[in-house]
Each structure stands twice: as structure tokens, then as C-alpha cells.
Amino acid sequence: MRIYDPAKTVADCFKYRNKIGLDVALEALREVLRGRKCSTDELWKYAKICRVTKTIRPYMEAIV
Question: Where are the domains of the chain?
């Protein structure tokens, strides 16, 4: 998988969470937000594009 943008990568991890595992997606979300590699708005934009807003929302609310 190519890495274009950290926010896009996290959204892709949630999109393919059944293949790579939810723990990998959650770790990616934590690392991006902890390292301030992208903003929550940017992450939300890519979540909409990848159609994972309903999946990622509870985890974002818990972490942020």
C-alpha cells in the first residue's frame, strides 16, 4: 500500500481493518494524532472519502 498522506493512510487502515486487523488501524490512529502528523479535520476529510466515518468516529472521540 502506498503512503500518500498520514491521514489517508489511517483512513485506508480503517477501510481494510478486516484484512489488516483493527489493532493496526487503532495504532495508526493513535500514532498520527499523538505525533500531530495531521489534523482531525484532515483525517475526517479522508474518512469521508473512504466512507469509514461511522467506523472511525467512536475511536476518534475516545482518543481526542
Answer: 6-63
